[in-house]
Specification:
Elements (H helix, E strand, L loop, with lengths): L24 H6 L8 E6 L2 E6 L2 H7 L9 H22 L3 E3 L5 E3 L11
Amino acid sequence: MAAPLPLKDNIRSWGASKGQLVIPARLRRKYRIEPGTKVIFGERDHEILIRPVTKEYVRSVCGLFRSDTPATAMLLRKRAKDKERGEAKLARRGWIEKSERGQHRQLSPRMGQESGD
């Protein structure tokens, strides 16, 4: 087990029976943690990390996963693949049939017959 990191001011807090922790007021002010502020919990080398999700934090991670492909284009490609998989699944079950022109004809789930509208 790694040696504990030295704490700057050695602030202590105790956990409640429901797993709640009290963040000391000095730290809440310093890190702008207000009622309703979300926090992220994480682990690193046998330590628990608590990071408030403030405007400053959100700005610091903006663009972290930047890509040359716009998110809309990636989403549209993913949706097209999902649609193809769904149609292939329905075709395997005999619920739809693909024509030569790429259009689909819905079949009755029973007996592989065309459904009447």
